[in-house]
Specification:
Radius of gyration: 22 Å
Structural class: alpha+beta
Strand order of the largest sheet: 2-5-1-6
Strand content: 15-25%
Largest sheet: 4 strands, mixed
Order of helices and strands: HEHHHEEEEEHHH
Number of domains: 1
Shape: globular
Helix content: 55-70%
Distance between the termini: 48 Å
């Protein structure tokens, strides 16, 4: 009987140690993944267009507004060397971008108000054509149409990954200051890459619970 109890105690202790080791690995990987996300966030500006509602008409309008804003923003950022310069250029043209969006809305026969701002925004992990970005907070060019309660559209306006073909994504990212490791991280589809991005989401969830 004593032997059985002792063996049970050993098994329980082994389980506890294994659990603690697993937790330590998880926390470490989460912290490293979060640092990776922070480094990526320092190099991109995302585009976030929010529709007035989920009606078919409002969703179609969202895409038309997206197109004109994206075209102009891409031109504004064409000579930007890094995110800091991209942010500066966009801040100087927010009123113009808002005017362009309002003009397109009016041309389509709507009288919705529209606002265009640059602000830090939380995003989930998002897959695009040729790359994926982990969940986290990113600087975003936000275009809010009307009440902004409809399904929204996300992409990356700097580097110009929204308009790049999937094969051109690595070159565009490298030109904007991404390291080769960061380019591999966002473009390669493998299990390690998925786990790293999931670790960011888990870590963000833990942070929210602790705050």
């Amino acid at each position: 009987m004593k032997t059985a109890v002792k063996e049970y105690g050993y098994k329980l202790k082994f389980f506890e140690i294994a659990l603690l080791i697993g937790l330590a690995v998880f926390l470490t990987s989460g912290a490293l993944a979060l640092r990776t996300q922070d480094e990526l966030a320092d190099k991109v500006v995302r585009l976030h267009v929010l529709a007035n509602s989920d009606s078919e008409e409002d969703q179609a309008l969202k895409l038309r507004v997206r197109d004109v804003v994206l075209e102009r923003a891409t031109a504004i950022l064409e000579q930007s060397a890094d995110r800091r310069e991209a942010e500066s250029r966009l801040r100087g043209q927010l009123l113009e971008l808002e005017r362009i969006a309002a003009k397109e809305i009016a041309a389509e026969g709507y009288d919705y108000p529209v606002t265009v701002n640059l602000e830090n925004t939380d995003f989930p992990t998002k897959e695009y054509d040729g790359f994926t970005l982990p969940a986290g907070e990113y600087l975003a060019l936000r275009v809010i149409i009307g009440e902004g309660k409809g399904r929204n559209w996300w992409c990356v306006v700097f580097p110009p990954l929204c308009t790049a073909a999937s094969a051109d994504v690595p070159a565009s990212a490298l030109a904007a200051g991404f390291s080769e490791e960061e380019v591999r991280l966002i473009t390669e589809e493998n299990q390690g890459y998925v786990l790293k991005f999931k670790a960011v989401e888990w870590w963000e969830t833990l942070k929210e619970k602790w705050d």
